[in-house]
């Protein structure tokens, strides 16, 4: 039995710094989806996102191995923040806007938590989530940033407020508008919004 | 009309960031205010949809990261 599976991130980081590679593997597997989603929602290209994800973890490796890791924050927030910054830097270097072409559908679609149902309802779920990814890209930048930091990077609203230089009420307001806007866009687009489909 | 402060608390509530006493007060309000309860339901639904939008990287990319870390350990 792998003894690292129940450990906190903080304990895993300490183990990794002392040379335990299994601890690092556990950390990577625990956070890879959030890191990857954070990046792919910005760059919209799977291959670029995988490259940037590798860069993010390599940066984390060097920081931890060199003893520069700050124990104060959460590992998940820290690694997702690195990923977010790398994705934004990528667009700056490419002189492209992260608000361009929308991603349409995906072949990497293996983490849906929905209950398996008929083929038809599964297709509706896939279409809905694919469309949701597109709609996230259409949100104003400040709303999209808060949504991604809170929902995918697992940062608290206070951490987001500190990171973006706004009050917690502003961060909360942006999140609220992001969620309201997503809902409106889904309703306006006649996207499946059947609560029964997503009920447990 | 729901107050902005209450709407902000609703956001904190669905993300489990509301302090215990404020959470209890909000839960009481949810039982008596249908508009607030509907808003809460919508937020939870969108939240669930966002969970479904999570993506998974390839095993190849993950193995590259793990191998890089191991190669550094071997060098040191």
Q: What's the arrangement of secondary structure elements?
A:
The complex is a heterodimer of chains A (200) and B (76).
Chain A (H helix, E strand, L loop, with lengths): L8 H9 L3 H23 L2 H20 L9 H20 L24 H20 L2 H12 L4 H8 L3 H21 L6 H4 L2
Chain B lengths: L3 H11 L5 H13 L1 H19 L6 H17 L1
Helix pairs in contact in B: 1-3, 2-3
Please provide a written account of the structure.
The complex is a heterodimer of chains A (about 200) and B (about 80). Chain A contains 9 helices and no strands. Helices cover about 70% and strands about 0% of the residues of chain A. Chain A has helices at about 10-15, 20-45, 45-65, 75-95, 120-140, 140-150, 155-165, 170-190, 195-200. The model of chain A is unreliable at about 95-115 and about 195-200 (pLDDT under 50). Chain B has one domain (about 5-75). In chain B, helix 2 (about 20-30) packs across helix 3. The chains are: A mainly alpha (about 200), B mainly alpha (about 80). The interface between A and B is large, with 53 and 37 residues.
